[in-house]
Description:
The complex is a heterodimer.
Chain A: E1 8-18, E2 23-34, E3 39-43, H1 50-58, E4 66-75, E5 78-79, H2 85-91, E6 96-99, H3 113-125, H4 129-142, H5 148-151, H6 161-173, E7 179-183, H7 191-208, E8 211-216, H8 219-225, E9 228-233, E10 236-242, H9 243-248, H10 253-260, H11 300-304, E11 310-313, E12 316-318
Chain B: H1 2-11, H2 13-30, H3 32-35, H4 67-103, H5 105-119, H6 123-134, H7 138-164, H8 168-175, H9 180-216, H10 228-235, H11 242-270
Amino acid sequence: MNQKEPLLNIQNLSVEFRTIEGTVYAINDLSYTLNSGDILGIVGESGSGKSVSSLGIMKLIPNPPGKIVNGKIIYEGKNLVNISEKEMEQIRGNDISMIFQEPMTSLNPIIKCGKQIAESLILHRGLKKKVAFEQAVEMMHSVGIANPEQRAHEYPHQLSGGMRQRVMIAMALACKPNILICDEPTTALDVTIQAQILDLIRHLNKEMNTAVIMISHDLGVVSELCERVIVMYTGCIIEESSSQELFENPLHPYTIGLIKAIPKISKDREPLQTIEGVVPNAMEKTDGCSFWPRCKDVMLRCKQELPPMIQVKQDRKVRCWKYVVGNRHEGI
Amino acid sequence: MIRSIIKLMKSNYLFTLGCFICLCWILAAIFADFIAPYGPITQDLSIRLNSPSLEHLFGTDNFGRDIFSRVIYGGRYSLLAGCVTVLLAGTIGSIYGAIAGYLGGVVDDIMMRLSEMILSFPSLILAMCINAALGSSLFNTMFALVIVAWPTYARLMRSVVLTVKENEYVEAARALGASKWRVLITEIIPNSVGSVLIMATTDLGNQILMFSTLSFLGLGSAPPTPEWGMMVSDGVNYFNKFWVAGFPGLAILTMAVGSNFIGDGLRDLMDPKLRKEF
């Protein structure tokens, strides 16, 4: 593959949910690229479309009511939006894999852990049961499960939360996929386990050269792990940046608010800052920027026109009228 | 699983009693040839309608046949009919219901409306109609009972599948590349059958009752087959000789109650709210 060609290229992706009450515009015009070996973070509040975008890549959006109405998802030259379900099943788990938020419920309670990991090897690699099981045990070892031979014969309820998430990761990585999508993998875990799981993901990313898409509402997790971060709001990307720059110098008023809202542990505690207002109803499509009702720097133009994605630097994009030449522009 | 059943037996004596009763009847039916003192259709008109005695524990009927032996042999027919009906209706119903619930949407609507067509008839009358139309034989009666019984299983299975399919492990399996049908077979059905199994144990008693009812009404098996329901029906003509209808009736009662006890016990085992010390 050409060095410059990205592993995954999402162009103008839009997803809608058509419900009885009306159409929910979950994702609007989402575009980003992922290079092989990258760790990309996607942050946003609940309902910002971060999970739907990842399900979109897997083509697992429940249909009906959900539908990809526009856009392309290009992976290895194929547009995943158009390919058949059969071809997609080949890609899922084999090329693109996913781990979920709740390790407690993401494992089948009545199948032994080792067998669950072996399942995808049998499915995609056509391995014999015994060989697959041996590889599963090996996989469990490489995700840091102590005593994998014994653990492989245990049921999910016999394992702790962190252990189950490791099993989940082993399942997702069993076929050595090119892309691993992590949908808030540490939300349900406590802080020390969270750090271990993040370490594990980073380690596996280096070792297996698996590109990772890390979805989280936790900016701490993202800053810890990711090189590049996308901030989403109401289904749009509003800022894209390297993770270091994002935290040192956030551009979009929403990102600034988000970073201010992180609780800090220090002696002189200040009251926690919040962003005023709530996430707007995704059923209403506004003409302007969707953040203007909550924005401190709102201008007239914000209410009338959706700001374009503005390239302010290399690898630094923001969707805000503040940074368009001709408007007030400062802070860069 | 086995350990929790033993625990259940210790704490829930009705469950233990149910297991004991059912086991007794099953063993009696299997080893009828050794247990029964007389043949089930051996007639001796000189001793017709004798009251229970040491020689004839349950007395004799109007043809002088030993009722005890007939009850022991009769278990074969009733238990067979009950088990086969529950097994077939349960399998057909659960697969049907699982498919309907899993696919959802229009398919679900059409499939469930079809099954409700059968449910909308009074079940006994429908079974009688089918049985009467096909002619009475053991096989036809079982067929009629299956036709009547499967929609209940389908409905139960569908409702369970509707909740099971929302579990994250179903989505996780899809995300790992399992096809829809594979997910249905490996993830959804195994996680849903629990409640169907419980219903099946309870239903076993009902099906034996239904079968006996049909036999009582002259459908079902033909004389001189020693079938419990038919024996009760024979006894109706000799109302002052309680043993003729009474003992086969008792057999039906104990079998139905026993399987209900088992079903109740299993339900308690599965229901975390009722699961006190398990």
